[in-house]
User: Fold these one by one.
Assistant:
Number 1:
Amino acid sequence: MQTTKVYLTGAGPGDIELLTLKAHKVITQADVIIYDRLANPEILEIAKDGCEFVYVGKEDGRHTLPQDEINEVIYQNALKHSIVVRLKGGDPFVFGRGGEEGAYLHKRNIEYDIIPGISSAISVPAYAGIPVTHRGVAVSFRVVTGHESPNKETSQIPWENFKTDETIVFLMGLHNLKKISSKLREIGKPNDYPCAVISRGTTKEQRVVTGTLLDIVEKAKGLPTPALIIVGKVVTLREQLQWFER
Ligand code: SAH
């Protein structure tokens, strides 16, 4: 019997050169690649001839296939192929549901490796010239789901803890930008508190809009996904550190 291995693999944020060597290796060897909507679909072009592609895409946290069906698709492919790559944007464990997929395979005795990827949470700000921490400006950062409406009564997000000057990165939050910016003002952040929206970061279509909690909604209108929101004083460092657009 042939041995099978599934690689739960991070594709990085978009720029194809931000793939890890390990991800690159398994992508070129894969018999099948099961992928989401990727910031850079060119990654699939490095697969070998005859590699099968299975799209199980999600957009903005909304699944076109429910997660349990995705788990089953991975499992079924593992029964048929020896090298299965499950490719996910950024890092598989940062809002990637890689843990659920790993647990599903574990239960069915399918071997897998995790290949971490460069998460958009830090690399997309970096390509916009925004460091998530900076001496004297921010001593910590958080990565928060923006998918959940801040008005949800049963929210698990500790909004009251966001009063400090730590940097907050919201993933999957563009459609909630208005609610997020009002919520942050409601908990006491000033209207002129710096924030930015970065769309399609690390790719040729990267667009960065900086503003304040008051005007960001208006300024970011029409920006395409994927996009993240970054809130914090570090945003102002972009004036000195912007490099990618140059
Ligand atoms: N596992 C991924 C995140 C999955 S959630 C990671 O580690 O990066 C998907 C969200 O990531 C998107 O809604 C968006 O907020 C963010 N994102 C991913 N790629 C991005 C990119 N190139 N530019 C801006 N935001 C991105």
Number 2:
Amino acid sequence: MRKLIANGTVVTASETFKADVWLNDDKVEAITAPVGTLPKDRVPQFDETIDAKGQFLFPGGIDVHTHLDMPFGGTTSSDDFETGTRAAAYGGTTTIIDFAIQQKGGTLTEALDTWHKKASGKAVADYAFHMIATDLPPARLEEMKRIVDEGVTSFKLFMAYPNVLLLDDQSIFRGMLRAGELGALICMHAETGLPIDVLIERARSRGERAPVYHALTRPEAAEATGTERAIALAEMAKVPVYIVHLSAARALERVREARDRGLPAFAETCPQYLFLSQDDLARPGFDGAAYICTPPLRPQHHHEQLWRGIRNHDLQVVATDHCPFCMKDQKELGRDDFSKVPNGMPGVESRMYLLWEAVQQGKIDLNRFVDISSTTPSKIFGMYGKKGTLAVGADADIVVWDPQKEVTLSVKTMHMKVDYNPYEGKKVRGGPSHVLQRGRVIVKNDQFLARPGDGQFIRRRTHTL
Ligand code: URP
Ligand code: ZN
Ligand code: ZN
């Protein structure tokens, strides 16, 4: 089956040029001058043509940080693999990396099997997994190889959430050494969690229970010291490290210093840290609970530092940490106590719209937009060549992006299975007219054309960072 996407402007992480793109089944077959200008005998018969005049062609978005169907805080994130990946595709994201979670005392293999069962037959977009390791005795360190051999080549470790997910420094260090042997990447939740719990305890005892205390008990200093410690441990272990959901200027300084010293330290931030702020957590009554995620939203002045970090390549990735909980029945679990509000926010569908707005505002250019949302995530997480660029031989995951499309970010217009939208009512200009996954049109002018189970599991390579 041959398709032609004609008259569009191709954007990659490094170039912008007008071209026609030929697809043959699931792959990009050729990128050429307009077929009308080519000798007729060089042009094959196409089964379908998409006219992309006036539109951009991007590689499908890659969101390397989602939590679908994840048990957390006494409940389960409200999007499962079907609804979450459908919403992702509507927003121009064709591949996600979700997190399998090892039960304390359980094996990594059990966790991976559980997450395969959650995703298989349901996902509509392509998906891969990271492994959250919560317990790393010698047998589990040994088992990490089996997980890497299954194509799960990154492990998330936590410095926060004592008694739940936190790993002590010795276990973290052993995990890093083992990851180094296997060519796997350590992703770190880098907040120093033990003092945070003391701050939470003290706030609660003073009756400080409103959502804004979530931010006030998780100060920037806790993230800065966590980031510094994660990088120092990785330096001692001589391995690369990837800091997830970086939210604050001082944490970014730690990453920048490490990179300036030549260390392989990488970091992602998320749209909520670029577009929302602590003021949202301070909304009246319980409304701020909608904005409880970890690390917390920071005061507005952090935004400019993070944008600068993106422009300077100190931040390489913008992922979402999509972890939705409905206000009703879920966030409400913490109505009288911020520390009982399940942590997390929806975002998998809105990421590309928001980053596009940043292009329009001149915060980043078109190529950097593609780089942070697709190309570099693909490179860091072992998918490049197949995913993350628009090139001959790559998977034909393509977003046809209409810069004139008007979209209102709202719970009414979007497809995430959650009863609020953090950007409710925000109007943006620019969005996908068509989303193709491996050559198949899965979104066409707001019509959804894929079926549950169409998404494929992506086995990722070990890294060469
Ligand atoms: O609030 C968040 N981020 N929830 C998901 C868990 C995590 O730490 O990524
Ligand atoms: Zn985290
Ligand atoms: Zn997360």
